[in-house]
Amino acid sequence: MTKPSIPLGLVFSRTGPYAMMAGEMQKSALMAVDEVNQDDAFDFTFAPHLRDPGGVVAAYHTACDDLIRTEQIDHIVGCYTSASRKQVIPIVERTERLLWHPARYEGFESSDNVIYVGAAPNHTVVPLVRHMLDHISSDVFCVGSNYVWTWETNRVLREIVTSAGGHILAERLLELGETAVDHIVKEIVDRKPPVVFNTLVGESSYAFMRLLHAATVHSGLTIPVLSCSLCEPELKLIGQAASVGCITSSAYFESIERPENRAFVSRWKARYGDDSHPSVDGQSTYVCVMLLARAIRRAGSVDVNAVRRAAANHRYDSPQGPVWVDPDNNHCFLTPRLARSVHGGQFKIFWEADAPERPDPYLSNLDLATIAARAEKSNDTKRSIYLRVVK
């Protein structure tokens, strides 16, 4: 018997300044759609409707408007940048549709018409800055793409760092897609900051990482680089020499040792080739489709209100670990992790939370006093190393 078909909107920019990352997300979405369609546990199939806004922010609204009004689609999976998500929110709210957003983002947002499957700031930037304060430095040089992801992430970074007595040494921004990074790299080499925090996106980030590596090697410098977004397919694009050693915060790495992840990576490579690698946002896109399919099955309907209720608190053992939607803010419980990029285009995980953490998109539970006390204790330890005992 033929199963009924449910139209599903997939909105990813397969052209433009971050085409590689969005293309990986679409590949993950299509893989999940095929798995749902072939699974007898679901009494329906998804019929994907693809749209490519080309990285043009205004085109996201046009694409979603067409999906909703022409194709009569209730559920859309997509958007990589926060600028694109914010472009789409008004139309899904006005038409009572649901956007399933896969990418980690800067937080400080909550819409009844968005399910935020990507990491919130308490899953990414907070553990990364804690690590920086405890083990590297309280003074940091920031470089990023000039849009809301960098603005808000740097604002959180600044509040945490200054509460711990540290300083933002500089904040340098580039337009999305800009690859002229020479002046920023020269400034970094001249000023020799103890650490660089990188929120550049796509080609801008790849150009920066390559040139910074070449310049620091030439100058005999070692400057750690921190990121909340770098992933395995990007390490391959940057090149092995320049991509090794970056400390990254993420809910997903290909190297996670879980049976669900090993099976996911195996299916991914069987579909896309042994030299391909799933990314954090790609894996999250896969989770979006799986959460949606399970919610529709539980609801017995594609009705947005029914699906939203069915998705709440329903645990899914995904490749990254247990994931479920918090009905208080429509964000997901996720497990934060920190890793260092190593040879072979992979990350070696050196820390992860004991259990999935509740999403805190507004950082209302962030305790700056505790972070400052930890940083002070860490600084005392560092200083004691250099104390000479006089008898």
Q: What does it look like?
A:
44% of the residues lie in helices and 19% in strands. It starts with a strand and ends in a 6-residue tail after the last helix. It has 391 residues and is α/β, with parallel strands linked by helices. The protein is globular, with a radius of gyration of 21 Å. The chain has 13 helices and 15 strands.
Defining traits:
7-stranded mixed sheet; 391 residues; 5-stranded parallel sheet; alpha/beta
In short:
The protein is an alpha/beta fold and about 400 residues long. About 45% of the residues lie in helices and about 20% in strands.
Uncertain stretches of 5 or more adjacent residues: 385-391
Count of discrete alpha- or pi-helical segments spanning 4 or more residues: 13
Characterize the main sheet. Answer: 7 strands, mixed
H and E order: EHEHEHEEHEHEHEHEHHEHHHEEEEEH
